[in-house]
Amino acid sequence: MSDLRLRIVEGMLTTQNADGTVNVAPMGPRVNDEFTQFLLRPFPGSRTYENLLRTRQATFHVTDDVEMIAQAAIGDLHQSPEFHSDSGEGYHILAGCCRWYQLEAAQVDTSGERAALTCRVVRMGHLRNFLGLNRAKHAVLELAILATRVHLLSAEEIDQAIVMMSPWVEKTGGDAEVRAWEFLLSAIQQRRFAGRESS
């Protein structure tokens, strides 16, 4: 699948661990306009990477639950998510998502820095409507990405982004967005402290 002008859609990906439990992680696959083809690019060594190579199955979720995205990005889900009862063998559908797409990898390329899995959609569904565009939700999403890159980016770069985006959360966010924002600010501080301790 060509990745020319394919958009990245941020969401949640579930895969099945070797012991049958579920791995829940943020993922931003490249998708075509029709949402019929997905390009997944997990990082080597991640649980998502290992599960995808072993099973070649995943479920991608379109969601507006930025609290779950924030917590999953840090690896600190505060409560175990609920799953749809009719998920199918090897697939796991998050009960609170907006839309879901069960994927099967048709091509796998592990030669690059990140794996590239070209996937086809084997089943899809709709559970609820997407809330709509909201600047606070987008701010939380951006900060979640930055929080995973504390070891790669300068503190100044991250702090500038926080200063720029804080008003978006204050002016347009609800309780969930504020909680997610504060959670990520705390996580960034903890990661900075841990980085100084280990250096």
Automatic annotation (TrEMBL):
Pfam families: DUF447_C, DUF447_N. Residues 10-124, 134-184 form the DUF447 domain. Gene3D superfamilies: Electron Transport, Fmn-binding Protein, Chain A (2.30.110.10), Hypothetical membrane protein ta0354_69_121 (1.20.58.290). InterPro entries: DUF447_C (IPR049288), DUF447_N (IPR007386), Split_barrel_FMN-bd (IPR012349). This is DUF447 family protein. It comes from Bremerella volcania.
